[in-house]
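thought: fold this chain, then report.
action: predict
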Amino acid sequence: MSLLASLLLLIVAARLLGKLFGRYGHPELIGEILAGVLLGPALLGLIKPNPALAGVAELAVFLIILSAGLEMRFNDIVAAMRGRGLALALISFVLPFAAGAAVAAAFKLDLMRMIFLGLCISITALPVAVKLLDSLGILHTRIARYALATAVINDVAALFILGIVLNMPQQSTFGAAAGTVAVATWKLAALALVVLALNWLLAWLERRDISVQAIPENLVRVFGPEALFGIVIVFVLVFGTISEMLGFHFVIGAFFGALFLDKRHFLASRYEDLRGTLSSITGGFLAPVFFAYLGLEFSFHSFDDIAFPVVVIAVSVLTKLFSGWAGGRLLGMSDREALGLGCVLNGRGVMELVVAGIAYQKGFIGPTTFSTLVLMGIVTTFLTPLLFKRVFPAEALARYGETQRESGGAK
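observation:
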């Protein structure tokens, strides 16, 4: 089937099933994932994952992240990464990683499979968290700030370890391993310096009453009002490209680049036009394709022992829920708010599939482990909104959102 025909079928099925789930009070992304499972190799076999669709899915991830950046502030995320927020991120990474390593040891897997299983269980997918929080209308809340900050730290840590493993020499010695770790650390520090330097520059300009709005306005006068969307895309792409050049996934850099797109940097009318354009492209087209593509990745044929995927899924869900709850309580959240945080942290999706795909392509894991990790990513993404709805029924969620809005939004 051609790319256009595949996209047409995916979009129609994803939108229909998404709206069906939305009508009954569930986030639409559940129906969108099921559309991919239905059309993909797992059931009907009408559409198979391919590089062209993967490229469209990557574009969707980029725009989902950009949408989140328009709704949040850089300082809020940085504040959530400090103190107890950092403790939350460490708990939600180390505990699932250790549990994944223990499962691998129990099933007598080798060291590399142990590492990658632990990495994939410890990840929280930033795009999945963003889409869920946005669909629930709580991107302005404390849960969102800590969940997204934790997702960024977890994903950076996982990609940092992945970079070390991929660059480890075949004949590993202590000196070679130490050198690999040092290079990866330097690259992470370089990415942080780029982000902090731009934030310092923008703050410096504001302190001297230099209008940052004049920059996009001058560009619009030169290239026309329709060029604003392209200007913003290029700005965020620069950060994503820097992130990739340093060996990290483009999502990490793109997220920080998008955080700089504050209302203060645009005229009010320009900002609303930008949000409207982005919402139409992302929500109406690319986001459903992305979540449907997750469903396409699933296959039943690689499983020869059902116990392994069942244990992996159970451990991945329980460890994230517990670590989110424990970290939330450490931050002073109520039990309900802390459990809601744990539910959001449970979604893996794209980042976990990226790590699993790289490991599979490089020969570090086999087809059984890969299919298990794909299933785990789909199931946890599927369960995340359902669990959150159980913790926060509609009335409780509305009260929580209103309380958080009154105490000060994210942007």
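thought: worth noting. The domain at 3-168+177-402 is CATH 1.20.1530.20 (Na+/H+ antiporter like fold).
final: tokens above.
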